[in-house]
Amino acid sequence: MVQLKDDCFASGETLLRLDQALAQIRQRVDVVVDHQICDLDDCLGRVLAEDVVSDVNVPPHDNSAVDGYAVYHDDLNPDGETRLPVTGRIAAGHPLDRQAVRNEALQIFTGAPMPLGADGRQSSGPDTVFMKEDVERDGDDVVLPQGQKPGANRRFAGEDIKQGASILKPGMRLRAQELGLAASVGRDRLKVYKPLRVAVFSTGDEVRDPSGEVQQGCIFDSNRFAIKAMLRGLGCQVTDLGIMPDELDVIQSSLAEAGVGHDLLITSGGVAVGEEDYVKTAVEALGSLHMWRLAIKPGRPIALGQIGDTAFVGLPGNPVAVMVTFLVIARSLVQWMSGAEAKPAPRYAVIAGFDHGKKTGRREWVRVRVDRDEQGVLTAYQDHSGGAGILTSMVGADGLLELDEDCDGIVTGQPVNFLPFKEVLS
Q1: CA within 20 to 30 Å of 198's CA: 65, 130, 276, 375, which one?
Q2: Which of 127, 155, 183 represents a domain boundary (last residue)?
Q3: With contact defined as beta carbons under 8 Å apart, do 311 and 301 qualify?
Q4: If you compute the radius of gyration of the chain from its CA atoms, what whole number of angstroms results?
Q5: Mean confidence (pLDDT) of the chain
Q6: What gap in Å lies between CA 32 and CA 198, rounded to an integer?
Q7: Which residues of 62-85 are buried (b: 16+ CB within 10 A; e: fewer)?
Q8: What is the pLDDT of residue 50?
Q9: pLDDT (tens digit, 9 = 90+) per residue, 346-375?
């Protein structure tokens, strides 16, 4: 295991911009998981831990792109039709059992290897393929129209992948297309990082699990389930530690035990400076904790620290703030610790369909739904409360408008940057 750097989350008390915070995290956090070899069928969603280099050309040989007839272009009549005898048949997986000769046509099917020439090489064999729809079959002959270009409908060896080419890079999260590409060069196993082990817990005497009942003055725990879902969407192995009561000794012993078998501990709430915020005290007693004051909305200060070699992240308590701060901050941290390349999620230009005031000096995210008009123009509308506790606004929204620190507000019709949930949530 690669250890976390000492005091990896240490920072000053200056109000940080988001880009500054992410840059500091990136500098101080390394991959903390080992790798393993897995069968291709077990690699979906895993993070690649090796540079995959192809040992073969793809395709491995020149082949036909269509069903039709393979001929030497030099045998064609440049001033009119050409009649040639059909003397062979080449199907995919069944090469011609002889070398090709001049002034013949060979029926060939899509993906079938181009025939060899007199010297036993494809480069000296028939070089052009006519689509069957473009020719006329007349008994044992085929009539070929004039005007076909040399090399038409021929695919070359290595056209997709050259032997020796690097086709997949470490840090890639493997999707169906990457697995297919690995298989295309004969790889049935890949080296991938082990899943990041993350423990998730909630605190508070007022918090209740949704499997039970809620008493007067209490609330059901939604944050823990949202956090677990977002972590699993990043391929993490998640342990649910449940709800911890507001008792310092219980929280401290639970954190100490969880820190031994996990790479990251993450929670929401309980890390402020109130008398009942025991998580902060417990983490400081076991390791180190720093409150990051970030210039963002929604979101209060985020607690980052570590217990031994185990990182700790304390997110805000309000449900919307929990999800937004996870997506724009904790998500990158999780990816970096997991060995994944954490590219910024793409933003898309849309038109604001409402006015919105904003203070300068902080980055803000506004929950919106996006509609497309008859001209294809995408317009963003805010139709929910902006409160950080209104979780229904996340369900009704398609994503977030991102307003940077220099923005002092938007007006209807103004171009704005839109972050779709589909880009950051599985």
Answers
A1: 276
A2: 155
A3: no
A4: 31
A5: 92
A6: 12
A7: bbbebbbbbbbeeebeeeeebebe
A8: 98
A9: 999 999 999 999 999 999 999 999 999 999
Phi, psi of 262 (to 5 degrees): -135, 160
Q: With beta carbons less than 8 A apart as the criterion, state whether 202 and 59 touch.
A: no
Same domain, 184 and 233: no
Say yes or no: 223 and 242 in one domain.
yes
Q: Is 163 inside a domain boundary? A: no
Q: Residue 309: give its domain's CATH number.
A: 3.40.980.10
**343 inside domain:** no
The span from the CA of 377 to the CA of 358, in Å, is: 25
Whether 225 has a pLDDT exceeding 90, the answer reads yes
Question: Is pLDDT of 274 > 60?
Answer: no
Region 28-42 average pLDDT: 95
8 lies in some domain: no
Residue 88 placed within a domain: yes
**pLDDT digits 0-9 by tens, 91-119:** 999 999 999 999 999 999 999 999 999 99
